[in-house]
Design goal:
Largest sheet: 7 strands, mixed
Strand order of the largest sheet: 3-2-1-4-5-7-6
Distance between the termini: 46 Å
Number of strands: 7
CATH architecture: 3-Layer(aba) Sandwich
Strand content: 15-25%
Helix content: 25-40%
Shape: globular
Oligomer: single chain
Order of helices and strands: HHEHEHEEHEHHEHHHE
Number of helices: 10
Number of domains: 1
Radius of gyration: 19 Å
Length: about 260
Amino acid sequence: MWDPDGYLQFAEQRVHPFYELLSRIFVEWPRRVVDLGCGPGNLTAQLARRWPGAVIEALDSSPQMVAAARERGVDATLGDLRNWRPRSDTDVVLSNAAMQWVPEHAELLVRWAGQLADGAWIGVQMPGAFDAPSHAAVRALARRQPYAKPLRDLVLREGTVVDAPVRYAELLLDAGCSADVWETTYLHQLTGEHPVLDWISGTALLPVREHLDDPTWQRFRQELIPLLAGAYPARPDGTTLFPFRRVFVVAKVGKSS
């Protein structure tokens, strides 16, 4: 179950990739802008400020996130982005930190490219840190008892979840788009007693939490703390450096002349 408040704990750090993505989409007056995986709507609201003349369409699969977005005045709809189809006036499709949860996201990009009109834009940002020490620690701990049994059916994602940038570029070029694909590793400076645990508790640990009862979950968290502290030691000034890789995919439908 998604927790909008927990996700927004690191809102300042999570907003940077959104603006980097937005800066590479060069359209002035889109008719309809779609935010797929809109989350709590804090960033969706920025789309209306950038493109005040556009209809803003927002979708998320979490009832909690949709409710939080609506509280911010975003007209969000509950739904699965895999079932989404663009309307004829859709000029921009955005998905920020959502499509890594969808195994077939590469196929979706190609499908959308075929459904959108020439001149439309697709912009996607996905975390690509699944080989990071934080994720490796979660996977290692999940294989131990007493966690292995309740987590036996849970697939903990690894580095293959998000492809190399060249793969997305090839797919979109073959689909008749112009493509701008890159990756960035952000070096976040986190504060707090257990900042990396707090960070992944709002995202990567959610599937683990759903499979464990409360006492087992609390024990899992406590055993994870020293693993994360060893991988991400606090600096003398109290901050913790947390590298985080992200992959960006921007495409314009119809190759530029």
